[in-house]
Write a structure and sequence with these properties.
Elements lengths: L16 E5 L4 E8 L5 E8 L2 E9 L2 E9 L3 E5 L2 E4 L6 H13 L1 E12 L5 E2 L2 E12 L9 E7 L1 H6 L19 H5 L7
Parallel strand pairs: 3-9, 4-10
Antiparallel strand pairs: 1-2, 2-3, 4-5, 4-7, 5-6, 5-11, 8-10
C-alpha cells in the first residue's frame, strides 16, 4: 500500500478505467476534454512501485551481481517490486533486502522517491539501511542468481562506467564518503 508520493507526481486520474490487465503493466484510459471543447481518449500505464536499498555494512555498500533469464548479467542495488498490497514502501524494501541478501538492518530512512516516467503510475523509492543487525538465509526467486558483494564507495563509483550496471542512484556520484551518505536527509511525501 503506497503511503508516500513525490511532490511532482502524476497519478492515474480517478475516472480512468483499466482496459488491459497485464502481468506487470496495466493500461488505463479515460476521456479528456480539450481546450476547444472536444474530447479525446488519453492513456496511461500502471505498474507496481519499486524499491531499492542503499545498504551500508562495515562502511561498505551492499551491491548485487545478478543474472535473470530475461535480463542476463547485471549489477544493481538490492530491491524489487512493491507488489504485496499489505506492505508499505519500507516493509517492501526490508523484505526485498532480506530475500536477496539475507541482511537485516536496524535503521532505515527514505532518501529519494521519484516517478520515473510521467505516463506511468509508478514510484521508485530509495531507502538507506544502516546499523547491520543480522544475517539469515537468502530466498531468491527461481529466476534470480544473486551474488552479494560489499564494495567501497570508490569501487561503486567505478561501476557507473560499467555497461553491466543496471541501476545505481546518481547521488552516489556527488558524495565523497559513506558518512556523506549517512548524512543524507530523509524525504517526506
Amino acid at each position: 500500500m503506497r503511503k508516500k508520493t513525490p511532490k511532482k507526481f502524476n497519478p492515474l486520474p480517478p475516472n480512468a478505467k483499466r482496459v488491459f490487465k497485464g502481468i506487470i503493466y496495466d493500461v488505463y484510459q479515460w476521456e479528456q476534454k480539450l481546450f476547444d471543447g472536444s474530447s479525446t481518449t488519453f492513456e496511461m500505464l500502471s505498474r507496481p512501485d519499486a524499491v531499492r536499498v542503499l545498504a551500508i555494512k562495515d562502511d561498505k555498500i551492499v551491491v548485487l551481481k545478478q543474472e535473470q533469464p530475461d535480463l542476463g548479467y547485471f549489477i544493481d542495488l538490492p530491491g524489487g517490486r512493491h507488489d504485496i498490497e499489505r506492505e508499505d514502501e519500507l516493509q517492501a524494501a526490508q523484505r526485498e533486502l532480506l530475500e536477496e541478501t539475507g541482511f537485516s538492518f536496524k535503521n532505515w530512512k527514505l532518501i529519494q522517491m521519484e516517478q520515473l516516467h510521467f505516463k506511468i503510475d509508478q514510484v521508485m523509492y530509495l531507502f538507506l539501511a544502516t546499523d547491520f543487525d543480522k544475517e539469515v538465509e537468502t530466498h531468491h526467486d527461481s529466476g534470480e542468481k544473486i551474488k552479494v558483494e560489499l564494495m567501497t564507495l570508490e569501487e561503486v563509483k567505478k561501476l557507473f562506467d560499467d555497461p553491466d550496471t543496471r541501476y545505481l542512484p546518481p547521488l552516489l556520484k556527488s558524495v565523497n564518503s559513506t558518512q556523506d551518505i549517512l548524512d543524507l536527509p530523509e524525504v517526506t511525501g
